[in-house]
Amino acid sequence: MLKPIATATRELVNLDGVWRFAIDSRLPESPWTAQLDTPLEAAVPASYNDLFTDPEIRNHVGWVYYQRPVRVPRGWTDDRVLLRFGAATHAARVYVDDRLIGEHIGGYTPFDVDVTEHVTAGAEFRLTVAVSGDLSNETVPPGKIEVTGAGRRKQVYYHDFYNYAGLARSVWLHSLPQVAIDDIVVTTGHVGTVGSVHYVTHTTGGDEVRVRLRDARGVIVAEGSGREGTLEVQDVTLWKPGAAYLYDLEIELLTGAAVVDTYALPVGVRTVEVRGYEFLINGEPFYFTGFGKHEDTPVRGKGHDNAYLVHDFQLLEWIGANSFRTSHYPYAEEVLEFADRHGIVVIDETAAVGLNMGVVGGLAGKPPFPTFSEQYANDRTQGAHAQHLRELIERDRNHPSVVMWCIANEPASNEDGAREYFEPLVNLARELDPTRPLTYAVVLFATFTNDQIIDLFDVVSLNRYYGWYVAGGDLETAREYLARDLQGWIDRVEKPIMMTEYGADTEPGVHSVWDKVWTEEYQTAFLEAHHEVFDRFPQFVGEQVWNFADFATDNGLHRVDGNKKGIFTRDRKPKSAATSLRRRWRGLDGRKPGTTEH
Ligand code: GCB
């Protein structure tokens, strides 16, 4: 799915700002048929939950309404007119004046609503967007609505981050020519110094497609024509981790001799491959350093924010991280574009978090009922998961920074039914993108002896909490358990193995000379103990600490103002462990992890 951009044939109007806002319980039946009768206004993009002081809004279950007037530029008479939503979490209904024009389910992927037939160039219309943050066992992520003892509807969910809802990403009105380029799929390669850019275009009409590839200085380095083709790039400059290089692919669609549509796509030439225990980028072994992150900031919730985007990437660079995982949902497209431009490697994860009844059973991992059953992860859940996976891959497959798809976080891969559930999803992902490896983040209860799906995937990504949930405060035992665990997986499958989560909650300012949990010293010692074990295994390809920064969670008893496993606080101040990580990842103490570099 192409992001709307301005070209010679396309225009766009950004609709971010402050919109009228209301929750459904305070509105008449059909709020979209009139101006919303509300004193409230909400920022877009932002989750709505933390904007207001009213707990009724923060904890609202059901629909909320956003509304604003929109004027269609007068020059758009002959064009198609569409609305693009970066995301509406988790479901949306879009009304133009009094009419329902489009719907979308899934809170972290974009969608278009074609309003051409319902609007007039030069005229204004009333845009109303209903957004629901509700989760059920047939949504991704799953959840359920319960009624409290006081008779109030409450959203329950099985993931450890606050269920922020609303219009958290940008909204655009954009124009497309009647005959247009609908999609472009690019795959790249290289043999020696010659790069290749294979492209496939999908169009509505048109006679011919012309393409041109420009280097970073704007010089044309390759040209071609046809709806599908391969461009050769002599003396190619590869896109590399830490050394991004982007070409620009210009695509023109022609009717007769007239150019009727143009689009421009940044392209990084690079390859990704898994061979034996190695993860290769451009044929060279790659070792991941970095974090599982969240889209999470004060007041905005999951609202995309360019200042935090820039600052977070600055902190990644400062600490020497070369990668992150988009735990536990696809992030805003702006984040991936930034990663493309700055050479940060991304493991792109779906929103399928919480497919695990074992987690509800506590540390014993005993599910109250089977995860893969009619009652929970059933065929409809799988259908929603497949649709979401399709939307994720169709959105992100052209990003060079994205090197792997993570299909789920901590599913019950040790339970019966996991294979039947995941095999079709793996097949779908490979069909949509045969070029990238696949993984899933493996939950603690899924061990090298009982996991039922690892052979379907390419990389073993472990989420482990030795020294925290298991052997908490006992780093000696944690080391033993971790080493045994890694060895077990290495013996079971010849695949690269990495940690996608390890971390300890840490309250900044709490200190001790002993191994006391929650102290800054413990977080440092915890990480160092892990690193000592990682370095024993040549098959080990990466370490992503949980988490980059502290983040908001549900109001659980074991969370004090959120999850505190951040290396940075929620407002991005470093805890002590940041210095230790920085020394390791920047190779200040000698060898950089996973390399012979000094
Ligand atoms: C996990 C989850 C992550 C949690 C983390 C924790 O295994 O994948 O979402 O936040 O543990 O801190 O408990």
Detail the poorly predicted runs: none
| Main sheet specs | 8 strands, parallel, barrel
Query: In the CATH classification, which architecture of the largest domain applies?
Result: Alpha-Beta Barrel
CATH class membership of the largest domain = Alpha Beta
Distance between the termini: 42 Å
Provide the descriptors you would attach to this structure in a database record.
598 residues; alpha/beta; Jelly Rolls; Immunoglobulin-like; TIM Barrel; 3 domains; eight-stranded parallel β-barrel; six-stranded antiparallel β-sheet; 9 helices; binds (2S,3S,4S,5R)-3,4,5-trihydroxy-6-oxo-oxane-2-carboxylic acid
Describe this structure in words.
This protein has 598 residues and is an alpha/beta fold. Helix content is 18%, strand content 31%. It is built from nine helices and 30 strands. The chain has an eight-stranded parallel beta barrel with strand order 23-24-25-26-27-28-29-30, surrounded by five helices. The longest helix is centred in the middle third of the chain and has 18 residues. The chain is globular. The model has no long low-confidence stretch (mean pLDDT 96). The structure holds (2S,3S,4S,5R)-3,4,5-trihydroxy-6-oxo-oxane-2-carboxylic acid (GCB). (2S,3S,4S,5R)-3,4,5-trihydroxy-6-oxo-oxane-2-carboxylic acid (GCB) binds next to loops.
